[in-house]
Amino acid sequence: MYGRPPPSHERLTIMEDEPAPLPFPHRDMIQILPNATVTRAVMNRAGKFHLGAVYDSAGALVQAALRVPDKYRARDPGMLSEALAGRVVERRLKRALYLGHGFTHFGHFMLETISALYWVREVDAEVSLLFHPFEEAGENVFTHYAHGVECLKLLGISPERVAIATADLAVDELLLPPRAYDMSNGPHYDFGAVYRSLREAALRSSIAPQAKRIYLSRRWLKGRERLANEAAIERRMKGRGFTVLHPERMSFSDQIRAAAAADILAGVDGSALHLAAFMRPGARVLVLETRRRRNVLKLNALMRVETIAVPATRKPDGAYAIDPAQLDATLDSLGCPPLPGPIRRILDLLVR
Asked: DSSP alpha helices (H): ranges in 42-167?
């Protein structure tokens, strides 16, 4: 169970009550579907639905392949003939491993796409890796986005293996593993090994020293700021010995290395905090919380990372802010004392 909503001026450690161990995914869980068809992806954000699914040799929708949705709903017909609506299959693959959606959005990529990549180790190297895109342009996250490109490189997976279902596909033999993560219930299996593999590969590529306390700032993400007083919060965090990083200006490998070395990772709730998956067990995440992000809690629980929250308060104009006194009390309890006065004053001058 998760903790109750936090009181406004107390530190809260949010942890599951020693969650039951999750089963490890293994090869026997993968279904084999001969003569399957995978329909092309369609995103309709106005209607909040998406299309693109797996159909078996009889033309029936394979429910196990569907994404458990959050705000966008799958509306795929039950039969292939209706789904194709007169279209002809455009491409054929011999063998493919269907891995759900290749998200370009960083947070969903971290949760749903990376966890699905766990299954790659269970199939032969010549098997295609088949994804549906989850945005209108149908872009391949593994070729168009730096975090996708680096992810495959770190895992030693050739980008030529990736197929994106922007057209209707016939697959002679489709390998269908269960979804490792869903947005409603969190992880179904202990797929932590894939995050550990990424961390180990990133650490091998550099021996540069890293900060033990880091603050992931959103302040330069124009239009996506969440805290009205984040500049002041950054000064406070620097005064407590935190190094301020802007993940959007870092490579994926650098982000992984920073998280892997940190004893404490702090930041406003959002996608960047999923980098906690690369921290060592027992490390801590300090969430400046504008609203409860349960997927951060679920992923951290899987990776044995402690989650601590300081809830923001909402101002009369609707903006969120963190109470400095509450933050100071939490940092004191985490063993992060203020830096000596002269150093703190210099840091204040540097960020003005």
From this structure: 80-84, 106-108, 114-116, 141-144, 146-155
- Cα atoms in the Cβ-side hemisphere of radius 13 Å centred on 104: 13
> Which CATH number is 12-20+203-350's, of 2.60.40, 3.30.1360, 3.40.50, 3.90.1570?
3.40.50
Q: Which residues contact 200 (CB under 8 A, 6 or more apart)?
A: none
Q: pLDDT confidence of 69, banded at 50, 70, 90?
A: confident
Residues 126 and 132 sit within 8 Å (Cβ to Cβ): no
Say which residue, 57 or 15, is predicted with more confidence. Answer: 57
Res. 351 pLDDT band, cuts 50 70 90: very low
pLDDT at 5: 36
All structural domains of the chain with their residue ranges: 12-20+203-350, 27-189
Dist CA 99 CA 116 (whole Å): 6
| Predicted structure pTM score | 0.89
Cα–Cα distance between 27 and 30 in angstroms, integer? 6
